[in-house]
Here is the input.
Amino acid sequence: MNKIEILDEYFMDARSKILDIAAMMDRMDRSGGADDFRWHSFLAALHLLNDDRPEKTRRILENFSDPTLTPLDTAPGKGASGAWPGFKDSR
Amino acid sequence: MNYIEPHAHMVSRTTDDYERLALAGCRVVCEPAFWAGFDRSSAQGFYDYFLQLTKYEPARAAQFGLRHFCWLCINPKEAEDTGLAREVIDMIPPLLHSPNVLGIGEIGLNKNSRNELKVFHWHVELAEKHNQLILVHTPHLEDKLKGTRLIIDALREHAGILPSRVIIDHVEEHTIRHVLDAGFWAGMTLYPKSKCSLSRAVDMIDCFGMDRLWMNSACDWGVSDPLAVPKATREMSIRGYDNIAIQRMVWSNPFSFMAQSDHFNVKDAVHE
Here is the structure.
């Protein structure tokens, strides 16, 4: 597919998704409450979206990932939150 | 087009779903053992589940013309209790002779804990000893990258395990290269929100080709779509893949991997 064909197929869907992201950010701006590691990872991911380097999907997934390799002593429950609590924004 | 659904948890789906799969062209469905959504209270609970996978579910699938195969294990979500895990693993060997059992799976990691890793090694040893194929679950979301790397390192410790006889499932853009470069098969799970969307799956086919790659719906009791694979074939068609290429992705590839098991006899499953 060339660029126009890609836009013809995916633009409206991506437009809808970016508006949902913007609306969620507006919602955060209007709200109070505690700070959260997920939000910092999210904001860092947005910067990756707009840089000029390739493989944005891979790099955004890595941004949300636990980069360590040491197994945990015990499993802290079963679920996952979508972002790594140890994330530090290096920008 | 006929296709193979290589990863579906049909015990948690309705007979309507079997009918929809059959109408969409599915001829073979493969079901790894998984977590029930709650922890089972005893090894006997697992034994009953294994009977469901090896006896009752194949009969239910057959009502709709589908061949049903399965994989056996204790899921990593229940691996923290290593005593229970050992008990469950010890009851698996006689069940490996059941005609619809393809191997050990879906084993793997969930939160990347030491006990999960220990139980993963036990499963791999079981597969090694009984010459079984392996289907690996990789962790969710933020735990996937670390878990995938730990799993690959762990598998490399077992000299008797050929990477060509292991599929590492639920890959995404940050893990697929690790898996394929190490010689393993990779599975892409098509989920509405987490894991991999239809368009991202086809992006990965664009970027990595089709060698040692399959797609599955992994439909279960959560938010998932039993028809994700046929929907992905439509996405492939939009991108310009012809029927031969699509057929390779949804029939020939899963067939090639699972035909390494003597139990995968699908001569009576029609392939157009």
User: Anything to note?
Assistant: Helices of chain A lie at 3-30, 37-49, 56-63. Chain A touches chain B at residues 1, 9-10, 55, 57-59, 61-62, 64-69, 71-84 (CB under 8 Å). Chain A has a mean pLDDT of 96. Residues 12 and 53 of chain A are 24 Å apart (CA to CA).
